[in-house]
Amino acid sequence: MKSCITISLVEEARGGPFVLWDGLEKSIAFAGELGYDAVEIFAPGTDAIDADQLSSLLDKAGLKLAALGTGAGWVKHKLQLADADAAKREQAKKFVRDVIDLAGQFGASAIIGSMQGRSDAVVDAPTARKYLCEALEDGGSHAAQYNVPLIYEPLNRYETNQCCTVADGVKLLDSLSTNNVTLLCDLFHMNIEEADIAEALICGGEKVGHIHFVDSNRRPVGCGHMQYGRIIAALRQINYQGYLCAEAFAWPNPEEAARQTMRAYKYWTQS
Predict the structure, then answer these.
(1) How far is residue 132's CA from residue 240's CA, in Å, rounded to a whole number?
(2) Where do the domains of the chain lie, and which CATH numbers do they carry?
(3) What angle do CA 161, 162, 168 make, to 5 degrees?
(4) Which residues are 3's β-sheet partners?
(5) pLDDT average, residue stretch 1-19
(6) Digit-coded pLDDT (tens) for 15-33
(7) pTM for the model
(8) What is the full DSSP assignment across 6-66?
């Protein structure tokens, strides 16, 4: 398992669960100094990232790009994949495809989380699920040209009513015709929704494609009450070889949150 840390470039999300906030150059250099393997970037859109500059910064720091988030599509641009308006849904799918195209240049995946939307008084649950599936089919097929999967994240009940558990996510992925979509299992969301986090990861099995490595209170690992022994054992049981990525509050500050996550990563993966 490899280490990863989040960088946010979205001012509208400041104070949210991302560790590093001081721009790509400083954040990537700091992650490299701490020995991280990769970064996950949350950007306002693809026009906020110069691919050549990013490549240079990553090379200089000895890092990979693990993934690009699409959440700004919702947070900043109010685009979501279950919108009642077909034109808005198409805009949302294009936003995702653009992120896939940028991430794909680095052998990295795009993540769909908050953009998945939800059912409501206008869009009923079966229709919202149908729209989400259409978007995952579209994105998964589009990502295949880069030999990377699209990553889909079940969220807790307060953020979506689409898929809230790993089992829900597995069922969703099994309903697709594409096999190029994997699951992001976020330990914070899982702590809310799962009866047994380790068993849920085992249920996810080979569909588990990315992990958000965070504690029960969304602070860095080691700053809450989550028990990681069985979680790490479950990831080893399913032969998970991907990233443990810190999507956590920058508590007590970004630098210490990054250091604490690296200490925890080394403790749990090397013990």
Answers:
(1) 26
(2) 2-269 (3.20.20.150)
(3) 115
(4) 244
(5) 96
(6) 999 999 999 999 999 999 9
(7) 0.97
(8) EEE--GGGTTSS-SB-SHHHHHHHHHHHHT-SEEEEE-S-GGG--HHHHHHHHHHHT-EEE
